[in-house]
Structures are given as C-alpha cells and as structure tokens.
C-alpha cells in the first residue's frame, strides 16, 4: 500500500521531508501540499517534480479524500490546530517539533487522541533515531556507565533570523534536549533554571544568547545545557553522560581529516540537515510504515507534552531568574 501524504508548510524542513519521501524512502507519495505562502508551495512542487495538488488551506488539505496521512512542517505556533484537525479526520499525522508551543496546547492534542481511541500522532523528535544517541541509550540501559549522575550538553547553531526570540531558545531549540534526556535517562524533570551569561555581539536585540539551562531530574541527575544560537562557527551538538563507572560522549559526525596548507583539520557541519539526515530518514520511514499498518509508534503526543511541560518551566525560569519546579502528571495507560 502506498501512503498518500499531504504536507502543510513547505519551508526548509517541509521541502527536505518531501524530497526524502519522494526520492529516498519507500511506501509514501506526496499528493498534496499547502503553505500560507502559496507560491512557496508551488515552487516546491515544481522543484521536486511532485504530482501533488496545491491547497490554499491546510485544513482543506487534511479533509481531502486522497490524503491518507499528514506531515505538519509549518511554524511551531500553527502545529496544534493542524494536528487536532488531522486527529478529527482520523488521519495519521507526523508533526515536527514542537508538538505545540505550550503544554496546554499539547494537552488538547492528548485529549483528542485519547478520545479518538488510537495513536495517530508521531512527533519529530528525530534524535531518538540518531545512531550516536542510540549507542548512548544502549550504554545507559545496559548499565555500562553505572547509574547516570550528570549530563553536560551543548546545542549550537551558527546564527538565527530576526524572528527567533528569547523563549524560542527553549521551545524551538532546547525542546530537542528536553525530549532526548527524558528518553536517554528514562526519567522526568523536577526543576529548571536559566542563566544568561554575557551576551554575544552577534545576537540581534530580541534574543538573549547564549543561555545556560540547568535541569534536575526526579532521580537527582543534574543536567547543564548551553544553548548558543549565534555561535558563528557551525551546527554543533554535544552530549556527555557522566555515570558512576564511566562517561559516554556522543560521537562526532563522520568527517574527513584534511592535511592542507600547513594545517590539520576537519570541517564542522553548518546545519541540522546533514547532521541528522540519516535520523530523519529513519523517523519518516517509521511514520510511513506506521501509517500503512495503522500503528503509529515513535515519539508520542505524551512525549511532546512532557517536553512542553519542562519547556514551559524553562520559559518561566527565563523570566523569573528563579529555580522553577516541574511537575509531571501521571501518564495515561493509553500511552503505555
Ligand atoms: P520555515 O520558515 O523554513 O518553513 C515554515 C513554512 O511554514 C513556511 O514556508 C511558512 O510560510 C509556512 N507556514 C507558516 N504558517 C503556516 C500556516 N499557518 N499554514 C501553512 N503554512 C504555514 O521553517 P522550518 O525551518 O522549515 O521549520 C518548520 C518547523 O520544523 C518548525 O516547527 C521547526 O521547529 C521544525 N524544524 C525541525 C527541525 C529538526 O531538527 N527536527 C529542523 C528545522 C525545523
Ligand atoms: C530548528 O528548528 C531545529 O529543530 C534545529 O534542530 C535546532 O538546532 C534549531 O535551533 C531550531 O531552530
């Protein structure tokens, strides 16, 4: 069975995902696209030579009879409305992170999915599909490190546009770490604090950059994350897990070592497209296969909600300068 997919939001990642579904993966076909910028949607259809109808409204696309499954790759604040509409239409939906920009928005999605009676939503937390993070998870799960005690991490982007503002360091960027550490440590968060070091001269006026986020889990693991989105030099994701019996470091992406012009060096990637390219392939293939089988798996709405609860606390901590408590409600049996 070919899963007929509609894509809402044909910007950078919408185009990337459409390209991989069309050219690399199996079992899926893009039959419909939509973007508030209709010209952008048409350009992507032309560029990728898609046999797809362009819709002016994402909600109309979701209702279309020939759309079996939906990819939501528009801006974060628009996700909730589209995911709710896909659930109402009984269609499988892959939603890029964040599931919604607040926990309240995610809660609406959870309530609707439970009401629908089956899992329909996969959230785009692609790090769970990255080979390096999977090795770390295996090392922790098989007790190679003893009990995890601390995590030191960094999430660096070369630069961000004017529309990227201070809270986005949390709900757009740190949200990856907030999901990753819950999954790696099989734990939830108890508190969060955000510290603003001296600001880089490369950041525009509406974003504090860099930021240091300090988290504590319910098991007492301490986590520090540096978010630095105007670091200039590259896209750099770092993670060390310190355990009782050893430390595991996330592998660097494979790259050639050059000896050239009196220097020995290797290049640093510049964006998420290459850094997580293989992880995107695996997560989307899982979504297509899940939609075909009627059994969506991978990161769930509950994972999106849990990350958003921590994200809300971090945004509050940005404003208060205090340590903010994080309380997770009990997970409904529906989410295992
Ligand atoms: P982008 O700005 O390049 O593209 C977003 C597109 O959505 C634009 O073309 C815009 O016109 C369209 N859009 C905005 N509002 C819309 C609406 N209401 N209906 C339909 N279309 C609408 O942004 P992007 O970098 O592609 O990011 C899109 C989403 O993907 C964001 O949620 C972002 O956080 C996520 N993302 C995830 C990763 C990752 O590593 N997993 C990487 C990049 C982006
Ligand atoms: C972007 O939306 C992503 O998801 C990238 O992975 C992240 O590094 C970046 O900070 C976000 O803006």
From TrEMBL:
<dbReference type="InterPro" id="IPR000683">
    <property type="entry name" value="Gfo/Idh/MocA-like_OxRdtase_N"/>
</dbReference>
<dbReference type="GO" id="GO:0050112">
    <property type="term" value="F:inositol 2-dehydrogenase (NAD+) activity"/>
</dbReference>
<comment type="function">
    <text>Involved in the oxidation of myo-inositol (MI) to 2-keto-myo-inositol (2KMI or 2-inosose).</text>
</comment>
<comment type="subunit">
    <text>Homotetramer.</text>
</comment>
<dbReference type="GO" id="GO:0019310">
    <property type="term" value="P:inositol catabolic process"/>
</dbReference>
<dbReference type="InterPro" id="IPR004104">
    <property type="entry name" value="Gfo/Idh/MocA-like_OxRdtase_C"/>
</dbReference>
<dbReference type="Pfam" id="PF02894">
    <property type="entry name" value="GFO_IDH_MocA_C"/>
</dbReference>
<dbReference type="InterPro" id="IPR036291">
    <property type="entry name" value="NAD(P)-bd_dom_sf"/>
</dbReference>
<dbReference type="InterPro" id="IPR023794">
    <property type="entry name" value="MI/DCI_dehydrogenase"/>
</dbReference>
<dbReference type="InterPro" id="IPR050424">
    <property type="entry name" value="Gfo-Idh-MocA_inositol_DH"/>
</dbReference>
<keyword id="KW-0520">NAD</keyword>
<dbReference type="GO" id="GO:0000166">
    <property type="term" value="F:nucleotide binding"/>
</dbReference>
<keyword id="KW-0560">Oxidoreductase</keyword>
<feature type="domain" description="Gfo/Idh/MocA-like oxidoreductase C-terminal">
    <location>
        <begin position="137"/>
        <end position="322"/>
    </location>
</feature>
<dbReference type="Pfam" id="PF01408">
    <property type="entry name" value="GFO_IDH_MocA"/>
</dbReference>
<comment type="similarity">
    <text>Belongs to the Gfo/Idh/MocA family.</text>
</comment>
<feature type="domain" description="Gfo/Idh/MocA-like oxidoreductase N-terminal">
    <location>
        <begin position="3"/>
        <end position="125"/>
    </location>
</feature>
<protein>
    <recommendedName>
        <fullName>Inositol 2-dehydrogenase</fullName>
        <ecNumber>1.1.1.18</ecNumber>
    </recommendedName>
</protein>
């Amino acid at each position: 069975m070919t899963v007929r997919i509609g894509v809402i939001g044909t910007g950078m990642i919408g185009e990337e995902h459409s390209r991989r579904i069309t050219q690399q993966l199996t079992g899926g076909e893009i039959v419909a696209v939509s973007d508030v910028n209709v010209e952008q949607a048409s350009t992507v259809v032309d560029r990728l030579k898609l046999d797809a109808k362009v819709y002016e409204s994402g909600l109309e696309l979701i209702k279309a009879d020939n759309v079996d499954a939906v990819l939501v790759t528009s801006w974060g604040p628009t996700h909730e409305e589209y995911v709710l509409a896909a659930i109402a239409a009984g269609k499988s939906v892959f939603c890029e992170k964040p599931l919604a920009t607040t926990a309240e928005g995610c809660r609406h999605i959870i309530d609707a999915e439970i009401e629908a009676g089956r899992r329909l939503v996969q959230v785009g937390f692609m790090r769970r599909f990255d080979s390096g993070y999977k090795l770390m998870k295996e090392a922790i799960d098989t007790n190679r490190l003893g009990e995890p005690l601390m995590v030191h991490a960094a999430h660096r982007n070369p630069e961000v546009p004017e529309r990227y503002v201070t809270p986005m360091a949390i709900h757009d960027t740190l949200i990856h770490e907030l999901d990753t550490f819950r999954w790696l440590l099989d734990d939830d968060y108890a508190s969060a604090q955000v510290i603003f070091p001296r600001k880089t001269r490369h950041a525009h006026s509406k974003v504090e950059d860099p930021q240091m986020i300090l988290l504590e889990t319910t098991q007492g693991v301490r986590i520090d994350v540096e978010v630095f989105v105007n670091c200039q030099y590259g896209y750099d994701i770092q993670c060390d897990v310190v355990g009782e019996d050893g430390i595991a470091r996330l592998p660097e992406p494979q790259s050639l070592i050059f000896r050239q012009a009196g220097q020995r060096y290797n290049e640093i990637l510049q964006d998420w497209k290459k850094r997580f390219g293989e992880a995107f392939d695996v997560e989307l293939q899982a979504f297509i296969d899940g939609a075909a089988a009627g059994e969506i798996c991978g990161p769930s709405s509950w994972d999106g909600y849990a990350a958003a609860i921590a994200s809300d606390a971090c945004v509050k901590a940005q404003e208060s300068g205090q340590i903010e408590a994080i309380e997770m409600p009990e997970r409904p049996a529906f989410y295992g």
